[in-house]
Amino acid sequence: MSYVEVTRLAKAFGDNQVFKAIDFSIEQGEFVTLLGPSGCGKSTLLRSIAGLDDVDHGEIWVDGENMTHLAPQKREIGMVFQSYALFPNMTVHDNIGFGLRMKGVSKAQAEQDIARFIDLVELSGKQRHYPHELSGGQRQRVALARALVMQPRILLLDEPLSALDAKIRKNLRLQIRDIQKELNLTTIFVTHDQEEAMLMSDRIFLMNQGQIVQQGKPEQIYTQPKNQFVAGFMGHYNLVEANFARHWLGVDAQSTLAIRPESIYVREAGRQYPTHVSAPINGKITQHQLLGNVIRYTIMVGPQTLTVDLLNRSSERLLAPGSYIDILFNLNEIQPVRE
Ligand code: ADP
Ligand code: MG
């Protein structure tokens, strides 16, 4: 049995069946991300595990114990939300210590624990500050310390980074991952951001409309999407129909193919390409977008619009819209996908 086992979990709000048979298991110390579009049921699933929403059917087991009908405060689960939900009239120190006081931990032990977690989330020197004196990132670190100080069996994080600026978000996601590893803490993280999920997770559970559509390691989901939804969500995959693939690529496709933008190359004199590439196919550049180290081109081949990512080497000129170029497909990186 795994550390976390969820079986046949079902939850409806009135007529709205959010999910009806969710199954998964998570190992101790794993960092798993629930990834999916807004409204697919991520928060409801997390709240069900925390005991904040009652489930209609199914079971939730943690560390060999059936938690399905246990009161939230008895589950020993830590939770951090997008909104920090700190007590505004309490200092950082008191916010972090609140749960320990409720639990009846001795003052000496509480002080030791508070100090340890303030240090761990790098808020030393901020003990006496109030939430309104902190930045968003610092407030979220207080919320994290407040959850961690209780030494939960599982940490649940519901879009904790979504309200923060890009730069703070990038720092904090690495920091959360480091702390999680250091504590070997079983963690379920929720996001709708595939880059965040790819970067942070041991495994991703990709959800759509109340179902886990695909689960696996980030690179597995990214390179082997099993249906069109996954391909569309995980990257800027090109979806090309079997007819196009047969006619233009000369491959014997039976279904739609998913092709990543970085596995199509623009042919240039003197450059080496992988061995299994298609014959050159002429296309017309219609657009380009500068994404920093990558230039994303839109290229028309016959009736098909393709997205092609090229590394932005500063020495090279941009390919101008309207120009014709030859492109090559890496035939090893073409993935058949179901509807
Ligand atoms: P996500 O977190 O993936 O955006 P949610 O779990 O918040 O999705 O929502 C899933 C579905 O459940 C949505 O249709 C939402 O409207 C509905 N829902 C969520 N919470 C409640 C609630 N407390 N009462 C009624 N419907 C809810
Ligand atoms: Mg949500």
Structure description:
The chain has 339 residues and is an alpha+beta fold. The chain has two domains: 223 residues, Rossmann fold (3-Layer(aba) Sandwich), CATH 3.40.50; 101 residues, OB fold (Dihydrolipoamide Acetyltransferase, E2P). 28% of the residues lie in helices and 31% in strands. The protein contains nine helices and 18 strands. The strands form four sheets. A six-stranded mixed sheet has the order 6-7-8-3-9-10, with helices on both faces. A five-stranded antiparallel sheet has the order 13-17-14-15-16. It has a four-stranded antiparallel sheet with strand order 2-1-4-5, with helices on one face. Strand 4 and strand 5 form a beta hairpin. Helix 2 runs parallel beside helix 4 and helix 3 packs across helix 4. The model has no long low-confidence stretch (mean pLDDT 94). Bound molecules: adenosine-5'-diphosphate (ADP) and magnesium ion. Magnesium ion binds next to helix 1. The site of adenosine-5'-diphosphate has 11 residues, from strand 2 and helix 1.
